[in-house]
Amino acid sequence: MSNDNSTQPSIQNQEEERNLGEGSILTIHRVLESFCDKSSVPDLLHKDLFDSRQGIVTSALSALGKIGNQSSLKHIVKLFTHSDESIQGAAVHAAGEIGNKSIYNTLLMLFKTTQNEELRCEILQSLLKISPREQEVVILVREYARSQIVSPATRAFTTGLLLKLDGVQAVKEILSDASEEVIDEVYRTAENRNELAAPLISHGIAMYHRMSQKNKILLVSIASPFTKGDSDRVLSDALNDPDPEVRRALYQVIGIDPEQIVKFDAIVRFFSERTENDPTLEEDVYGAMTRMEECLNLRGGRRVMPLKGEIISQIKNLFTQMSATDHRITSDSHELGWLITRSKEYLEYYADEEFKNGLVRYLKGSGNYTEQSLLRSLKNSAVKVEVRHFEGYNALTELIKNPKRHGIALVARELVIARLGKKKIMYRLIRNLRLSRIFQLAGDEASFSTIYDWAKGAKLYRLADAALYALAKVDKKGTTSASTACITPPVASKILAIGSIHMLNSMDWVIMEPAVNKLILDTDDQHILLNLVDALSAMDRHPGGNIIKSLLTKLRLGNNHEILSRIAVLLGGKADFNIFDSLKEIFTAAEEWKRGLVLLVIERMIAENKITNLEGLSEFLYGILRGGGDKNLYQAAILLWKMGDEYALKILEDLIKKGSIEEKVDIVRGLKEALKPEIIHLFVPLFYEDSNLLQEALQETLLSAGEDETKKKILDIVRKGMEAAPSGMEEYAEEEREVTADFQEERKAYRFEREHIQKLAVFFTDIQGYSKKAQELSSLELTSLIQEYEGILLPVVTSHHGSLIKKMGDGHLLVFQKPLNAVLAGVRVQKSLQRFNSYREEKKRVIIRVGIHWGDVARREGDVFGNNVNIASRLESSAKGGSILISNALQEDVKDYIHSREIGLINVKGIKEPINVYEPYEIAIDLPEELDPLKKGGHKSTLIKEEKPGGLREDDASARIVSMNQEIIRYFTETISSINSVLKRVEAGKAELGEVRKELARRWNGLKSKFGKEAGAGV
Prior knowledge:
The chain has 1019 residues and is an alpha+beta fold. Helix content is 61%, strand content 7%. Strands 1, 2, 3, 4, 5, 6, 7 and 8 form an 8-stranded mixed β-sheet that branches. The longest helix has 24 residues, at 964-987. It is globular, with a radius of gyration of 40 Å.
């Protein structure tokens, strides 16, 4: 084959012409390899094979190999003799992935002509993919695997190929004279091939003491679950291995497979007799014990019963040794006695013979130790020292710094007789206490409780923690009581507090909850709070409203980013929609980084459908966008998009245009879980951004697309844009966007519409024959009749989530968020009035006409406007007394739940085309309960509100509701809430006490202005 590099200059630098950076092109390659099928490979990838940049060529080869289109081979083959060996290797690999036998001879010739071992390995691998049983290839693989003249890495690689060919037989041949690198490869291959385990275990047992650390660790993994052949020998050898990392590897596989249960007796006996000097290794042992317990529980509670008596006996003996006290020659209330007692105690727990002997000689004025060397050794011994032994540490420090003090001879004499090793006894006792949970225990709670009380009193908190952990298995009530005390502030021991927190899920929550709540509010310890938040997140129950409130308080007042981030995740998963108002309050007063956490909570709640006031959430998010100047703008826009807001797409496009690279990265990553076909065009300009960080985010997000339609849109944009002229990508983006070119004007439009335009059901009422009644009835009678009528109308409207906009003489204009609620309210009002009229004389009857229409209306200054309002008004005037007319648009939404008569087309004043109208007269008997507000217990009126200066919101319409008593109660409820909010801000130091007086005055003035005129002296 000739070197065909002559073709490269004519088509190289294709990407430079498109003004794309290397990172952008790699992003495009990853999209193409993920979403293209074999039948459609864009020519773009073939052109990129001859780019001048190595990274682009190898990336294109990788993409073509994964797509697997046979027609790509003719381009790939040209790179077999490329001057860059890494490109050669990538080309060979891609060809192997495509797997066409037509290039077999070409690859074989390349193998024979090249001297590069790495390339030869790649060729052999591709040849095996193309023709796995071709004799010539098999011979080459075997020769390379056994060759003594190739590098160990090459032997190891070809050994892996040989194992795929010959399996067990190859293992026996390879291991006879294998190097460490080859054995590594064999063991790594065997991890995924069970049939290779037996010969490797036999080899490992025979060679165990001569194996490297790496090979021993691999052998442990292969031998687990220690039930095949001689694998139990591996278990025994690894448990006793002097290398701590080999033991660690073993501890980490114990308990991961229920088949290991048959070996648990041996493991338990070994664990009960040993300890690890390294605390991290000891933690690995505890993890193994926990998994063993879980395995036994899964298998129906089978226990290694024969060892139960031994473990309990060891616990008692070890505790006896721990709690025994030596005779003290003097009271430690005196300085010298204190030095002797505490120093001796510290040595017994933490010193070795070398340190003790060196210290004694130093105090006697002999030996080679200096003050600095002894202090250094003392400091090294103080890792995880128990609380009470800090006194011993301080006593020894004092002795080392002042070895000539009075009575030093007595001190030295007492230290000589100090018996070392209590630390080992303590850790053995801890191990056995943890092991006790593996057994079915009964009647042992007294001994565990005694150990707990003694250890806690002695400030040996790790031992107390283990005793409490053992006690939890046999005495839930006692453990709950002890754990409650451990977490009740002020916390005496962080170790016991965290241990108790870990057992929260198995404790009596009713008893524990108040202490947990107090702990959240009263501790700032990072480790305790992080463990607590994790434990609450993992609980299989809802933590309760009080806990949620305390977490919100912590979110508002705290300043530890890690803790508050975890609290935000917890709130998003565990809280319900009732916290939305609290989150808004926190957001308003918080600094920028904390605002991001509030939005994180809201995002989680949206994902889990925990926010029901979506309209309120939309207004809140648009308030953030209107505020501007906040780095959380993009989060608000993403949340709007996830909620399905129609303008979020335009907002995101604007933010992407104006944002920094960091902000674009955040936007792209934030959209990862919300990709839809209509948003894909926003990513198009980002392909031109020369930022590796942005391109990585773009790859991550685009490749996460799950729906076929979205994948198709991504692929379509990449193909069309990349195959176009230099500006083709931008032109394609313009073609895809369904927005006007003047974005600033559009921005103004969506701000106006978001603030003022809503889709509402507009509900008009009017009393038939009102003028005649005004002539027949006295003013008092007419006023009383209207009040009775409104006493029927307005409660029905309120219970159906309706809002009163205004009264117009004897008529009412109302709106509803949901069309079904409006029609239900209309039918029920008419039925109520029928009952009302049935026992009244004619002149005191109230017969109304109702017209309802559904559509977009403009909302400003407490009123609603627009053509759809006019249509509803015309429908009302066209209705007969006692009836309701609704438009066809509304009928389509309610026809499954409301029985209606089709009236037909009617001409409506001001509307060119006739409107098809219906008359609803009855509610379907099978109306689902979840759609009926009355069956859900009703709802407070969502009265149309207007934003006032200072951000406070008040009801414009509530003053018009005749039921004054209810409205006054509601106003006082709002007043109490408002005052409480100000008081909280005062307590947090965010407001002055005078703000309370101002708020009281403001609410009082509001009371007089809202109710004074109509209710007079009664208010």
